[in-house]
């Protein structure tokens, strides 16, 4: 009887397209002999909540899921039902998982202390990103940042556990609920993307080692605020137009960021005369995507400095964000810092 030998020792097989998220996390953990498995479990908890929220987003057109919730959050924004549902689902998964001691959420005014004496991690989360697109069936997302607490485990949560700069993230990622649902994350060793297969209830590796093209021809900015932009930014946008770059703006940060990460491009939510700090939040939007961008070879600034080096001072603080292909972010920085008038003749 002939026996076919199947050589499984080839570790690259483990990271080949089609590998399940669970298996990928396990293999990655084995690369770090001192890893205790808690971060792996936390990533699995987030993936579980993402599957549940994915199911809800697919039903967003139905009365009991779509529409306004009837309350405003700390940002003064009207909460959508799905903002609240996603917030509950992720907070519950992080609580049940047992790895997390505190959560910072866009939908909660204060830090959520999970009263978990053994929790090692702090999670900052935007449970539902792109809320204005929920009811119009356009891609939306979830964004998360993971930090290790800095005070002793079991001791009361302190501000320094929460107010950590983005360069202290141990992991970060996003979920994109679009034509397909993807989970993209980094633990500081490159960026990998997984696509959800609903009939199997599994995320499968579909985008190994994601790399942002160094340059691109897509710019994403809400030009409705053009008149409020500073001269340098106007000049940069005119330059993009003169070179016939494509203007693409979905109005869901995760979706705009994801497209530009794959195709090459820049997303900008700048400071304006009206909002000198822009709109996006440092702790649970900008930091996570900036970690991903840098890990994929891209770049992220507030127009003047590296997002990941900003020392947070308040939970829901905002920051201007210029993120994406390295050459484009560098160039917009030059335009902003020189503040050049437009030299392009239309
Ligand atoms: O409508 P605007 O001002 O262009 O803002 C759109 C931006 O606001 C956001 O919706 C803010 O995020 P939330 O939906 O999580 O509040 C981003 O996803 C998006 O990029
Ligand atoms: Mg958001
Ligand atoms: Mg949100």
UniProtKB/TrEMBL annotation:
It is found in: Cytoplasm. It comes from Aquiflexum gelatinilyticum. Belongs to the FBPase class 1 family. Keywords: Carbohydrate metabolism, Cytoplasm, Hydrolase, Magnesium, Metal-binding. Its main location: cytoplasm. Mg(2+) 2 binds at residues 126, 129, 285. The gene is fbp. InterPro entries: FBPase_C_dom, FBPase_class-1, FBPase_N, FBPtase. It catalyses: beta-D-fructose 1,6-bisphosphate + H2O = beta-D-fructose 6-phosphate + phosphate. Its cofactor is Mg(2+). Residues 20-208 form the Fructose-1-6-bisphosphatase class I N-terminal domain. HAMAP family: FBPase_class1. Homotetramer. GO terms for biological process: fructose 1,6-bisphosphate metabolic process; fructose 6-phosphate metabolic process; fructose metabolic process; gluconeogenesis; sucrose biosynthetic process. Substrate binds at residues 129-132, 222, 249, 279. Residues 213-336 form the Fructose-1-6-bisphosphatase class 1 C-terminal domain. It holds the Pfam family FBPase_C. Pathway: Carbohydrate biosynthesis. This is Fructose-1,6-bisphosphatase class 1. One of its GO terms (molecular function) is fructose 1,6-bisphosphate 1-phosphatase activity. One of its GO terms (cellular component) is cytosol. Mg(2+) 1 binds at residues 106, 126, 128. Its EC number is 3.1.3.11.
């Amino acid at each position: 009887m002939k026996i076919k030998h199947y050589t499984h020792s080839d570790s690259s097989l483990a990271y080949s397209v089609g590998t399940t998220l669970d298996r990928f996390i396990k293999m990655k953990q084995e690369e770090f002999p001192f890893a205790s498995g808690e971060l792996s479990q936390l990533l699995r908890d987030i993936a579980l909540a993402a599957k549940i929220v994915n199911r809800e987003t697919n039903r967003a057109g139905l009365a009991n899921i779509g529409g306004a919730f009837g309350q405003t959050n700390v940002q003064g924004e009207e909460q959508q039902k799905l903002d609240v549902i996603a917030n509950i689902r992720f907070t519950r998964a992080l609580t049940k998982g047992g790895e997390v001691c505190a959560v910072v959420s866009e939908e909660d005014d204060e830090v959520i202390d999970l009263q978990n004496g053994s929790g090692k991690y702090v999670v900052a989360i935007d449970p539902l990103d792109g809320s204005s697109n929920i009811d119009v069936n356009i891609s939306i997302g979830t964004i998360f940042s993971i930090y290790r607490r800095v005070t002793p485990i079991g001791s009361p949560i302190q501000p320094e556990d929460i107010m950590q700069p983005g360069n202290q993230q141990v992991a970060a990622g996003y979920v994109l609920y679009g034509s397909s649902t993807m989970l993209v994350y980094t633990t500081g060793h490159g960026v990998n993307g997984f696509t959800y297969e609903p009939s199997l209830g599994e995320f499968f590796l579909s985008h190994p080692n994601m790399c942002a093209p160094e340059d691109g021809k897509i710019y994403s900015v809400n030009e409705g605020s053009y008149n409020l932009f500073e001269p340098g930014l106007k000049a940069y946008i005119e330059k993009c137009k003169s070179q016939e770059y494509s203007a693409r703006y979905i109005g869901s940060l995760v979706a705009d960021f994801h497209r530009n990460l794959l195709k090459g491009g820049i997303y900008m939510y700048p400071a304006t005369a009206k909002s000198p700090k822009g709109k996006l939040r440092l702790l649970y939007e900008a930091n996570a995507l900036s970690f991903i961008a840098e890990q994929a070879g891209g770049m992220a600034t507030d127009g003047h400095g590296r997002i990941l080096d900003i020392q947070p001072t308040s939970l829901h603080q905002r920051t201007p964000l210029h993120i994406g292909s390295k050459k484009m972010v560098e160039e917009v920085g030059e335009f902003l810092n020189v503040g050049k008038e437009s030299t392009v003749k239309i």
